[in-house]
Amino acid sequence: MDRRWLAFRDQAGASFSTPLGSSLPIGLNWRGGFLLGEEEIPALDEIVRSAAGQVGAAVAMWEAPMFTYGVAAQRDHTEIPFLLGVDPTAIPDEATDALVRCAIGSSYAGWRQRTAQALAAWSVQTPRTADALEVDAVLQLADDDAVEVPARITSTGPEPIPQPALAPELLGLTQHVAAYERLASRAAIEGDRDLVYKALLAHPLVGQVSPVEELTEQLLAADREHLPRFFAQERA
Q1: Rounded mean pLDDT of 138-143?
Q2: 3-state SS, residue 205
Q3: Apex CA 148: angle with CA 203 and CA 152, to 5°?
Q4: Alpha-carbon span 138 to 133, nearest angstrom
Q5: In what order do the strands lie in the sheet with 57-63?
Q6: Average per-residue pLDDT for the chain
Q7: Helix axes 168-190, 193-202, angle to 10 degrees
Q8: pLDDT one-digit tens code per residue, 54-94
Q9: Four-point Cα dihedral 62, 65, 68, 69, nearest 10
């Protein structure tokens, strides 16, 4: 995938010199579509600044194969660049320019938290769509975390119903469950008991050291026939 799109506040009389392709399913009072050109980061930033200057607010994203770069802008405010879909310990060379533009610095976690807060404040009036326009929400969970959302069933397939960003009291719970799912999946694939232990410890319904060891053994024993990697040494 290598595509770029722009969304902006729908304001009467607004016109842009930037050509847009097919439209995006954007919420009330917003318009947008896919950019036809292959703009690099400086050009994408300028498009967003120009759009925000005309209609008040705009957001654009470049979804590249190895990373996603985005920028949100509001009239008379400094734009907010952000980088998604990368491992902070192994950022690909292709994302170097995006990394510099985002000014991540020495602490990726700190940058991520600051950026999420800035986007959450900026996005009070942002579009709500099933596409990647949930710029505050995408920073709250990993790019490949799976979530369940309501959807409308149409003749072309299901269309997820846009959801607001998670409230603080729900975000932590969701992140814990996502961490459990990620660790549990790795444990099953790798046959690693330590990962089972960590997964149970991360789960909000467990979260205590004392029962985790016993639960680990009980779970592995109950599903022994489906988890052969955990018992490979016994067969040897």
Answers
A1: 54
A2: coil
A3: 170
A4: 9
A5: 20-23, 30-35, 3-9, 57-63, 68-74, 80-84
A6: 76
A7: 170
A8: 888 888 888 888 888 888 888 888 888 888 777 767 778 88
A9: -50
